[in-house]
User: Which sequence fits this backbone?
């Protein structure tokens, strides 16, 4: 997104204090298991399971919304390989990816980071054992049905060829998973739906239609598409539900909180006092030799390398201006938040991202 001089100054200040940025410059010493030009991975010093890894882009931004597509694409594209190596080193049956955006969602450091948590049945980590308790109201359903089709069209209008993707077909297992849910978007690779009863209002699930269980089986291109859509869907949800934060929880493979092992991204809108504080764990000292595990995972990363897909799906940065022009106005709009306003047929203020960020940090 385009940053104002004030935002740039604020980020520069934040960066000076940032623990992750100090890890990148080696001002803080820790167990680095992977590094290239764009990204870095370290062992979490307070792991919830053996091999719990923190994976982050080197560019300092507090939340996903700030990253330009070219800054975040290599990060998404590397996730399958990272997971494969970590699972291999820890001999795990599953993995959970976790992201907290905003204080209300349990974010502690202002640097976007994804937790890669290796999982196996009986590992004792039960924070993500979901108990569905909130029904999707008719009002929110209607709002989603009004906003999503237009918002998704906006998204694809910004892709290289501008084509809106075909829905593709659904295999039986996909059909089974989405029964009773409100389908918000579908193409040949994935399906996005709001569940009838979730752990929060507007609990959204994203399933891969290509791979039933294992995130590590997606190609770089498929992973980039999957995570880009998840990030975009979360920003659309922001406009619908006005939360104070979001959690991404991706479950893949077998664990006690994912008995059938299905690959599913859960997007959870968070508010202060929403009763979901239990998703975030308390830091505890490792019960295993961190350095030994670090060495093992690092060794397993020997062939991890980002190779840009041959025909990358390119999201143009100036989508919004185009859309604004087509509608005859909105020349001062910026970023995705404004796109959503245009999609909603409302007058854009150009401040939606600012507003979202303020909500995230409770300012
Ligand atoms: Zn940082």
Assistant:
């Amino acid at each position: 997104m385009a940053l104002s001089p004030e935002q740039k100054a604020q980020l520069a200040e934040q960066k000076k204090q940032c623990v992750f940025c100090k890890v990148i410059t080696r001002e803080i010493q820790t167990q680095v298991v992977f590094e290239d030009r764009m990204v870095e991975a370290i062992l979490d010093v307070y792991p919830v399971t053996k091999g719990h890894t923190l994976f982050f882009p080197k560019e300092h931004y507090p939340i996903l919304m700030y990253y330009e597509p070219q800054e975040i694409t290599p990060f998404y594209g590397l996730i399958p390989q990272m997971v494969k190596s970590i699972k291999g080193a820890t001999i795990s049956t599953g993995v959970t990816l976790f992201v907290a955006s905003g204080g209300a969602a349990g974010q502690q450091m202002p640097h976007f980071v994804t937790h890669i948590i290796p999982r196996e049945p009986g590992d004792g980590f039960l924070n993500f054992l979901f108990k569905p308790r909130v029904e999707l109201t008719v009002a929110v359903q209607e709002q989603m049905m009004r906003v999503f089709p237009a918002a998704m069209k906006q998204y694809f209008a910004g892709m290289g060829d501008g084509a809106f993707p075909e829905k593709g077909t659904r295999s039986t297992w996909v059909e089974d998973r989405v029964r009773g849910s409100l389908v918000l978007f579908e193409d040949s690779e994935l399906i996005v739906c709001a569940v009838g009863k979730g752990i929060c209002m507007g609990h959204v699930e994203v399933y891969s239609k290509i791979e039933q269980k294992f995130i590590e089986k997606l190609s770089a291109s498929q992973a980039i598409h999957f995570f880009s859509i998840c990030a975009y869907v979360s920003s659309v949800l922001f406009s619908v539900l006005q939360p104070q934060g979001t959690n991404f929880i991706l479950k893949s493979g077998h664990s006690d909180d994912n008995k059938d092992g299905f690959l599913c991204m859960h997007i959870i809108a968070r508010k202060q006092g929403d009763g979901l504080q239990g998703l975030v764990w308390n830091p505890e000292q490792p019960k295993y030799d961190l350095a030994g595990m670090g060495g093992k995972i690092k060794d397993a990363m020997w062939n991890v390398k980002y190779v840009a897909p041959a025909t990358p799906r390119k999201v143009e940065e100036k989508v919004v201006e185009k859309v604004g022009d087509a509608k005859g106005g909105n020349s001062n709009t910026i970023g995705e938040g404004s796109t959503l306003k245009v999609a909603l047929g409302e007058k854009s203020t150009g401040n939606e991202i600012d507003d979202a960020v303020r909500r995230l940090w409770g300012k």
Notes: The chain has one domain: 1-318.
